[in-house]
């Protein structure tokens, strides 16, 4: 549990992929690898007709990249490989022949927004604020950028990339991150379960064809996201980023 976990359960046509990390559902390399593989398995399993992506806990959906692992990166190759973890998850969601429905019960930051943006439909609670903090730590939202820009448009992506503040769930729904927002998690879960059950009884072939149409124009993303991972892997070694992460961890451990 202290290293994080990913669980895949398939029941009545619904493949539930649930991840957890004790540090606000952050995403170390191990969790990223398990997430990508779980989504690929669910996509290839005939028992699954729709995929439900979610995290454990109440107030945070995903805090993004693990600062502990970022602090340990000492060369560009290791940096690229870490950020390739995000690329693999996004591409697994993109290529998956099943629709990916995501449950956002709390805040989503950085890489967590990459998961939201790579989803096909998103249910969120009203306190599920969003934030892109990468530029403020000296990196930039390069790997998750294509998915986010595709979801909300260049203007909104530019604004939240440059101005690293919290944006509320209402803003996130207006821009397209979220499709439905609920007043509390109980209502969210009821409606989400009804929705997933309905899709699980739907036409599998038609949904797979719809998924292809939804993601048309992204066929080059394997190469695109790898190139973006190289950029992030280089920038994470900068003095600015190393100092920011060191100061943040020192403050967090007080």
SSE blueprint and pairings:
Blueprint (H helix, E strand, L loop, with lengths): L4 E7 L2 E7 L5 E2 L1 H16 L5 E6 L4 E3 L1 E2 L1 H6 L3 H20 L4 E5 L2 E3 L1 H7 L3 E5 L4 E2 L13 H8 L1 H9 L6 H7 L4 E3 L2 H16 L3 H11 L6 H15 L3 H14 L2
CATH superfamily: 2-enoyl-CoA Hydratase, Chain A, domain 1
Distance between the amino and carboxyl termini: 23 Å
CATH topology: the name is 2-enoyl-CoA Hydratase, Chain A, domain 1
The fraction of residues assigned to DSSP E strands is 15-25%
Overall pLDDT score? 96
Largest sheet: 6 strands, mixed
Structural summary, described in words:
The chain has about 250 residues and is α/β, with parallel strands linked by helices. The chain has one domain: Alpha-Beta Complex (2-enoyl-CoA Hydratase, Chain A, domain 1), CATH 3.90.226.10. The protein is built from 11 helices and 11 strands. The chain has helices at about 30-45, 65-70, 75-95, 110-115, 145-150, 155-160, 170-175, 185-200, 205-215, 220-235, 240-250, and strands at about 5-10, 15-20, 25, 50-55, 60, 65, 100-105, 105-110, 120-125, 130, 180. The strands form 3 sheets. The protein has a 6-stranded mixed beta sheet, with helices on both faces. It has a 3-stranded parallel beta sheet with strand order 5-8-10. It is globular. The mean pLDDT is about 95.
């Amino acid at each position: 549990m202290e290293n994080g976990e990913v669980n895949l359960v398939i029941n009545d046509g619904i493949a539930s992929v649930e991840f957890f990390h004790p540090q606000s559902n952050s995403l170390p390399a191990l969790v990223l690898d398990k997430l990508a593989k779980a989504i690929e398995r669910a996509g290839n399993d005939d028992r699954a007709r729709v995929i439900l992506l979610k995290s454990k806990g109440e107030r945070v959906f995903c805090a993004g990249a693990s600062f502990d692992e970022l602090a340990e990166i000492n060369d560009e190759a290791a940096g690229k490989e870490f950020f390739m973890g995000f690329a693999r998850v996004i591409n697994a969601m993109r290529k998956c022949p099943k629709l990916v429905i995501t449950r956002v019960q709390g805040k989503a930051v950085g890489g967590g927004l990459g998961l939201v943006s790579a989803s096909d439909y998103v249910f969120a609670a009203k306190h599920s604020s969003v934030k892109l903090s990468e530029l403020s730590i000296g990196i930039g939202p390069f790997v998750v950028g294509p998915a986010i820009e595709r979801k909300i448009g260049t203007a909104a992506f530019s604004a939240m990339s440059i101005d690293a503040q919290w944006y509320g769930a209402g803003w996130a729904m207006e821009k397209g991150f979220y499709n439905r927002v609920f007043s509390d998690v109980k209502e969210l879960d009821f409606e989400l379960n009804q929705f997933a059950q309905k899709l699980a009884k739907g036409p599998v072939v038609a949904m797979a064809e719809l998924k292809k149409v939804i993601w048309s124009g992204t066929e080059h993303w394997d190469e695109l996201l790898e190139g973006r991972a190289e950029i992030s892997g280089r920038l994470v070694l900068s003095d600015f980023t190393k100092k920011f992460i060191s100061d943040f961890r020192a403050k967090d451990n007080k």
